[in-house]
Specification:
The chain has a 3-stranded antiparallel sheet. The longest helix has 17 residues. The protein is α+β, with helices and mostly antiparallel strands and 81 residues long. The chain is elongated, with a radius of gyration of 16 Å. The chain is 33% helix and 11% strand.
Length: 81
């Protein structure tokens, strides 16, 4: 039983370490995958609220706005503003 609990905790900690869930605060938001100027964003709906009070449709749109603002926009929270 102790071994099972250990593996469950290890699995959860690895999940949060390697996923965006652990890094979705304003200072730690990872936009590396969207920094290519030629990349187009999908129309997936996953709202992100920026520190400028604007709601961006998804992570890609938010990251493109962060790049255009030279990093002055931060993530307030996930969801609509």
């Amino acid at each position: 039983m102790k071994t099972t609990g250990y593996f469950v905790l290890l699995g959860l900690s690895l999940f949060f370490f390697f996923s965006d869930v652990a890094s979705e605060d304003g200072d730690q938001f990872d936009c590396k995958e969207f920094m290519d100027d030629g990349m187009y964003c999908t129309r997936e709906s996953n709202p992100h609220c920026g520190s400028n009070g604007m709601t961006y449709g998804n992570k890609c749109a938010f990251c493109k706005a962060v790049k255009r603002s030279h990093g002055s926009i931060r993530l307030q929270h996930l969801g609509k503003c």
